[in-house]
Each structure stands twice: as C-alpha cells, then as structure tokens.
Design a protein that fits this description.
Strand content: 25-35%
CATH architecture of the largest domain: 3-Layer(aba) Sandwich
CATH topology of the largest domain: Rossmann fold
CATH class of the largest domain: Alpha Beta
Distance between the termini: 26 Å
Order of helices and strands: EEEHEEHEHHHEHEHEEHEEEHH
Number of strands: 13
Structural class: alpha/beta
Number of helices: 10
Number of domains: 2
Strand order of the largest sheet: 6-7-8-3-9-10
C-alpha cells in the first residue's frame, strides 16, 4: 500500500534527515508511528502524502508516485495534520465544499460520528469552536471519507478524556482490512488498544517495524516479582509497587501483553539488540 525505497531527504545539505530509508506498510493495519521530538515523524508523513519532496529514492502510495500528488491518489488518501487550517464556515458548509473530493465519503457516517462526540449542530461555525471541538469535527470528516489510506498526526491532542475514548470507538468502527491507517503520536496510552503494528523512528532510521503479535512472540512484558529473569535478557525495566516491570527477550515463549510505552523505551535503550532479535 505504501512503499519507500532508498529515501533521502533533508531540509539542508548540511543535515540530512533520512539517508537510504526503506519502509513498507500494508493494508489492514493501524500503525503507530513513534519517535522522539525532531526525529522526522511529521516529515515522513508529509513525504508519504506528497507534501515534501525527497532528494533521492522512491515513494509510492497506492502505486502512485507520492510527489506527483495525482488525483487518483488524493481522492483515496486523507492526511489529518496536527495543526488544522479551519475556514470560516459552518460544519455543514465545510462538508458540502470538501466531501465531493472523496468518492467514498459517507454522510450518514459523518453524522453518526459527530453525534457520538455530542456535536449534533452542524450550523456551528468552525472558527468559533475550541481546539478540541475543531479536532472532533476533523476526525469525523477524516473517518467518513473512507479513504484506503488515512494518515493522522497527533489526533488526540486537544481532546479531553471522554473524547479520547470516543475517538478510539469511532476509529475502531471505521477500520477494516482494506485500509492502511498510520497514526503518529506521543500519547501512546490513548491508542494502546487500537494499534496493531508499531514503527519506531530514530535519527532517520527505522529501529522497529513489526506487528503486535510478532512483538509478543519475541519480547516478554511482565512484573519480575521473583527476580527470576536473567539480567542479561532484560532490555528495559521500571520500578513499580509490585516489583520491576521489565521488557525481556522471550526465550521461553511466554504469553504477555505488549506495553507500547515500555517497548519504545526498550528499543531506545537497546536498538542493536532489538535489530538482532527481529531480524534473526
């Protein structure tokens, strides 16, 4: 669905952000794109959507060359940016003006999603709304477009706790096996139950690109109450009231629930070891 080969990109010749980056994203997944500030997450999303132009390599989205931003790609892709440009329009007028660009836009779904967010009045002006309300409208619009590729940059920023719960609900309603959804976020716990594949980016390199099932087979997440895990196998640990919570090499093939926040810290601490584990 999305293929990046030998990507080279930088905002200046003196400091390149990506050098020979390779990445492949498949349909049927909700990818969580994680990384520290300044690692290029938003830039990577812009490259995938054709808003930034690579100096080298190839980027294709649904078999379209992304930099060309051809109509066939744009009508099947929606990019919800972190910073939203909002015109001085009523909700209903915004939909009337923009929905025709997306051939699979579903008005009934849009109305349903708005209702779940308790925003039933489509005569409200977007510019008079709070940040959280604007974000809700744009989330509803993005999901109602039913594009095969949906890119979201920090979608839960500005949402209160009940709204984050609603967001998870409607995203789960909208997701299906024919879609590729990529979410860049620092709010990992907001989306923990939805993400089924993880991409970790650091210093222009992909340190990890794996689905949750694969991660669970390779790594063990547990409280080391009896201190029976070999210290050499522990990739990361945090203190808790019950004992150290650890991420370790899963040599005994034990079952455990992946904690994405702990996973991120483990990858940051031992990138080379993670690479060996997942490319053995």
């Amino acid at each position: 669905m999305i293929t990046i080969k030998n990507l080279t990109f930088g905002y200046s010749k003196q400091k390149m952000l990506f050098n020979d980056l390779d990445l492949g994203l498949q349909e049927g997944h909700i990818y969580g794109l994680l990384g520290k500030n300044g690692t290029g997450k938003t830039t990577l999303l812009k490259i995938i959507t054709g808003l930034c132009f690579p100096q080298g390599g190839e980027v294709s989205t649904m078999d379209y060359p992304a930099p060309l931003r051809q109509a066939g790609m744009l009508e099947n892709l929606f990019f919800l940016t972190e910073e939203i440009f909002i015109p001085h329009l009523k909700i209903k007028d915004y939909v009337k003006a923009n929905a025709p660009f997306y051939k699979h836009f579903n008005h009934e779904q849009f109305n349903e999603y708005l209702s779940l967010f308790d925003m039933d009045n489509q005569n409200d002006y977007l510019t008079k709304m709070s940040l959280g309300q604007k974000k809700k409208v744009m989330i509803c619009f993005a999901l109602a477009c039913n594009t095969p590729v949906l890119i979201m940059d920090e979608p839960t920023n500005g949402l209160d706790i009940p709204s984050k719960s609603t967001f998870r609900k409607i995203l789960a309603m909208a997701a299906d096996e024919g879609k590729t959804i990529v979410i860049s976020t620092h709010q990992v716990r907001d989306l923990h139950s939805l993400i089924d594949a993880v991409i970790i980016l650091e210093q222009g390199k992909i340190l990890l690109n794996a689905d949750i099932d694969t991660i669970a087979r390779q790594l063990l997440f547990k409280v080391n109450e009896d201190n029976n895990i070999d210290e050499a196998d522990i990739l990361y640990k945090e203190e808790s009231l019950k004992g150290d919570v650890v991420v370790a090499i899963n040599k005994e093939h034990q079952e455990s629930k992946v904690d994405i926040e702990l996973l991120f810290n483990a990858v940051m601490n031992h990138p080379q070891k993670i690479n060996e584990i997942f490319h053995a």
